[in-house]
Amino acid sequence: MITKDMTVGQVLRLYPQTVQIFLELGMHCLGCPSSTMESIEGAAITHGRNVDSLIEQLNNAIETAGKAN
User: Fold this and answer.
1) 1.10.3910, 1.10.3470, 2.160.20, 2.40.230: which CATH number matches 8-68?
2) Is residue 36 within 8 Å of 9, Cβ to Cβ?
């Protein structure tokens, strides 16, 4: 389960299926150094996104991918 205090880099390593969600929301700096330190909450704020909505979308993506396997 993804939480708002996890870093973007941590989420990408654990759940690579979330990449598309980040990209669709205009969060393209997935490989930049700040992604290893910036929390999901911080990234949402930086990109003008609602953190709760982002968390929901990310968790839905990993749940959907789990059902496909």
Assistant:
1) 1.10.3910
2) yes
